[in-house]
Design a protein that fits this description.
alpha+beta, globular, two-stranded antiparallel sheet, 131 residues
C-alpha cells in the first residue's frame, strides 16, 4: 500500500495492526512514513476485509504457479481518505507473491497492435501536478 503522508500513514498502519494484519518491515520490505509505503502480509480473507473485493487466484499447476488478481474496484475505509477529500490516501498497490508465472493469451479476441506513442494520459503527461 502506498501513498499516505505521515499522519495518514500512522492512522492506516494502526488500523491494520488493530485488525491483526502483519506489517512487514524486514527482509527488504521498508514500512515507514518516510518511504510512504506499508508492506502487509495478508491472506484472501484479510484482503477482502481491507479492500472490499475478493482476492482471486488463477492457476495452480504442478509447479505451484499462481497469479493473484481481483475484479472490479478496490475500496478502503472512508476514514483512510485524505483529509477533506473523497479519495483514499492509498494510491498504489503491489502484489508481491514471488515469481510471476508466464501467462499465455487469456482471451480469444482479436489481437491489437497499439499505435506508436502514448497509450493513455498516464503515458503522456509528465507534469508534476498530473503525476
Amino acid at each position: 500500500m502506498f501513498g499516505a503522508n505521515g499522519d495518514e500513514f500512522h492512522k492506516i498502519r494502526s488500523d491494520l495492526e488493530a485488525d491483526g494484519i502483519n506489517i512487514l518491515n524486514t527482509g527488504g520490505f521498508v514500512s515507514t512514513p518516510e518511504s510512504r509505503t506499508i508492506w502487509i502480509d495478508v491472506n484472501a480473507e484479510q484482503f477482502t476485509r481491507i479492500f472490499g473485493t475478493d482476492l482471486l487466484v488463477l492457476g495452480n499447476d504442478s509447479d505451484g504457479d499462481k497469479m493473484f488478481f481481483w475484479q472490479g474496484t478496490l475500496s478502503t475505509k472512508p476514514d483512510w481518505n485524505i483529509a477533506g477529500e473523497q479519495r483514499s490516501a492509498i494510491t498504489g498497490l503491489w502484489l508481491d507473491s514471488g515469481e510471476m508465472p508466464i501467462i499465455q493469451n487469456l482471451h480469444s479476441g482479436t489481437p491489437v497492435d497499439p499505435p506508436q506513442g502514448p497509450q493513455s494520459i498516464g503515458n503522456l503527461d509528465t507534469g508534476a501536478s498530473a503525476l
